[in-house]
Amino acid sequence: MKWLSVLALTAPAHAYLRFGCATLSVQRLDPLVEPGKIPSAHVHQIVGGNAFNATMDPSVDIGNKATCTTCSFSEDFSNYWTAVMYFRARNGTFKRVSQYPNSLLGNLKGGMTIYYIQHDFSTNGNQKVTAFKPGFRMTVGSPQNKQANNPGITYTCLQNVNTRFPETREFPKQPCPAGIMANIHFPACWDGKNLDSPNHQDHMYNTGTGGFVAAGACPASHPVRVPQLAFEVLWNTTEFNDKSLWPEDGSQPFVWSFGDDVGHGSHGDYVFGWKGDALQRAMDSTALLSSGLKTQSVAQANQCNVKSEVQEDVDTWLTQLPGQGMAM
Ligand SMILES: *[C@@H]1O[C@H](CO)[C@@H](O)[C@H](O)[C@H]1NC(C)=O
Ligand SMILES: *[C@@H]1O[C@H](CO)[C@@H](O)[C@H](O)[C@H]1NC(C)=O
Ligand SMILES: *[C@@H]1O[C@H](CO)[C@@H](O)[C@H](O)[C@H]1NC(C)=O
Predict the structure, then answer these.
(1) Going by CA atoms, what residue is nearest to atom 9 of ligand 2?
(2) pLDDT at 10
(3) In a 3-state reduction of DSSP, which class is residue 108?
(4) Where is the DUF1996 domain (predicted)?
């Protein structure tokens, strides 16, 4: 699969959307899984439009409500979020690991890279891809998960910013010179009816095998092919890569904000918020990178943010992970 990474980085590919979104906010909110709860159980990093808040009523079209976005496509007011990575020092305290942008996408502040794939990296495929609708939301992965059972949830130990393989199901066990990339791929088959489901996953079906490989045909229960959404989050572990800082027993010093130091609980959340039919137009176009989507400058994207609704420190050396009760 090595060729995929080479292709992704060098070919003038047309078959997908790939763009950066700067950090919008880092705080303990989870409008999808714990709507209205201030604070929610664990810290998230959020990118996208500024209609993000603790409740996010599904009847509100955030594509109309938001007034700015941290994404380089200026018509994308969607919100995308994941847990946050912390480093646990020998003395048991925690420090948040910072994020950095994909080098191809300019000097965005933190954030992540977002993909909407139609088929794979080298072709648009030949099937209709139906854009998500206002009110649509979904999650992939789960903080409760303790098994290596989700092909969409992987990690890459970055030797440099362009490393893409191999992928592992667990946190890398050795220091990674350019940090750790968390890869999060969503299912691409929708039931065509429900904008959400009680567990935020049952309205979707995964036929993918991980990576940016074409997903299999959608089943009758979930017949509508939607874009294959994926996040790449680059966690800059550089300042913690000195092994003399790691636990003496050699165990993993990196931990998700919900206390998982293995990595199987990695998860991603999505609330659709493209303005009007912009995403559908992009999916219908055959040359996506010149699809007529509006863009904005890095400076404009970096300017958009939301005020934290939770008054707590998530950034200095912390004696416990916010919301996780006991120190580990
Ligand atoms: C949160 O956003 C929704 C719409 O997205 C809005 O109806 C609600 O008033 C907002 N709540 C707060 C506390 O700002
Ligand atoms: C714990 O260790 C970290 C990293 O070595 C250090 O920066 C921090 O000051 C220490 N905190 C305490 C309370 O000793
Ligand atoms: C990663 O962190 C190191 C140490 O804090 C810093 O010097 C470096 O500039 C960061 N790299 C990126 C790409 O932000």
Answers:
(1) 317
(2) 41
(3) coil
(4) 30-274
